[in-house]
From TrEMBL:
Disulfide-bond pairs as recorded: 112-145, 113-129
Name the UniProt record assigns to this protein: Tetraspanin-33
Membrane topology: Multi-pass membrane protein
InterPro entries in alphabetical order: Tetraspanin/Peripherin, Tetraspanin_EC2_sf
GO biological process: pore complex assembly; protein localization to plasma membrane; protein maturation
Localisation per UniProt entry: Cell junction, Adherens junction; Cell membrane; Cytoplasm
Taxonomic lineage: Eukaryota, Metazoa, Chordata, Craniata, Vertebrata
Gene that produces this protein: Tspan33
GO cellular component: adherens junction; cytoplasm; plasma membrane; pore complex
Amino acid sequence: MISMVMVAVGVYARLLKHAELSNSSALFYPAPKRKGIPSKHSTLTIPFLFPQFSVCLTVVFLLQLAASVLGFVFSDKARGKVSEIINGAIVHYRDDLDLQNLIDFGQKEFSCCGGVSYKDWSQNVYFNCTAANPSRERCAVPFSCCLHGPGQAVINTMCGHGMQARGYLEASAFIHTNGCIDKLVNWTHSNLFLLGGITLGLALPQLVGIVLAQLLINQIRDQIKLQLYNQQHRADPWH
C-alpha cells in the first residue's frame, strides 16, 4: 500500500516536471559532452542500490514473519498488550479527536463497550464514576456503546449517561455491556483464514520482489564482469 502511494506521488511529480519542462525552452539544451556520464553513474549506482533494496525487502519480510509467529506463540501476552493499548485509549479518549473517532467506530463495529466491560470507562477523567467528579459525563459511557434500533435515524449522544451506575442486566437494555477485548479476540479466532490469506497476499509480492531483485543483481554483475573482460582483452596487445 505504501509502495502504491509512493508510485502515485512519483508519477504525479514526473508529470508535473514534464509540464514545467515543456514551458521552459532553456531546459531543452543539455550539454552533449556529458552524454557518457549517466551510463557511468548507472554502472556504479545500480549494483549498489539493488542489493540494498533486496536486503530491505528481506528484513521487512522476516520482521513480519517473526511478528506473526510471536503473536500466535505468545497469544496471552499479546492479549495483555491489546488490553494495555485499549485501556490507554480509553484514558485519552477526549484528548485526541482522531482517537475518539477510532474508538467510537470500533465500539459500534464490534458492538462492545470498554476494555473488559462498560465500567472500564471510569478510567477516563470525564466518565469517572466517583462522587468527586464534577464532569457532566460522570458515570456515563460514549454514545457508541448504546443500542440503536434499525430504523433510528438520529443518534442520541446523551444515551450513555448514568449507565456505569447501573448493573449489567439493567444496563444491557440500553448499551453493549461486553468489552471490546473479548470481541476482538473472538473476531480474530473466527477470521483466522481471512487474516492468513491477507498475510499471504502481502508476503507473496515481497518474496517475488526479493527473488527478482536477486536475479537482476546477478545479471548486472555478469554484465559488469563481461564488460571488464572485454576491456581487458581490447587493451591486450597480443590479443
